[in-house]
Design goal:
With 166 residues, the chain is mainly alpha-helical. The protein has 8 helices and 2 strands, in the order ααααββαααα. It folds into 2 domains: 6-69, no CATH class; 80-164, no CATH class.
């Protein structure tokens, strides 16, 4: 049996439950609310609808139809806490499930980078999360509004801090 990707699970749930909120979808698919919201933004829902309060009531085009209540959650506000919570979710659950143990991956990355650069044990496992965080910092120079880079920097540094204490 092929393991279903998290995004596929979210889309499948959204198709079966078209009026589900991002919060409901996140809970049902064991995903973070921020990740679900990011995916929902890709379907082209108008900005006005996404930014509307939860209980917004819009009139239908046909006057004989009843008013509809739209179940969209307002966009998540980006705060230091929301960034750290998302990073925690990613390093604790999502990424570990998808990619395996971080430390094992970092050991392998260090070995590959050393081999590629013709070095012998120069890049250590402790260097890998720092270098990955620096890559994300470099990406911020291209687009400092892309929140994922901030989240990933927090996640890489948290993993690095944990690994450095072993």
């Amino acid at each position: 049996m092929v393991k279903q990707k998290k995004a596929d699970k979210i889309w499948a749930y959204k198709i079966k439950h078209p009026k589900a909120t991002a919060k409901q979808i996140a809970k049902a698919t064991k995903s973070s609310e921020a990740y679900v919201f990011m995916l929902m933004k890709k379907i082209g829902t108008p900005k006005e609808v996404l930014e509307a309060p939860k209980s917004i009531v819009m009139k239908c085009e046909k006057p004989e139809e009843e008013q509809l209540e739209l179940p969209f959650d307002p966009p998540l506000s980006v705060t230091r806490t929301s960034i750290l919570k998302e990073a925690e979710t990613l390093v604790s659950k999502d990424r570990a499930e998808q990619h395996g143990d971080a430390e094992s991956n970092f050991v392998l990355m260090a070995a590959y980078w050393n081999a590629h650069l013709g070095l012998r044990d120069y890049i250590k496992v402790d260097d890998v999360p720092v270098m990955l965080a620096l890559m994300k910092v470099a990406r911020l120079h291209g687009n400092n509004k892309h929140i994922d880079n901030y989240v990933d920097v927090c996640g890489y540094m948290a993993l690095g801090g944990e690994i450095s204490q072993r």
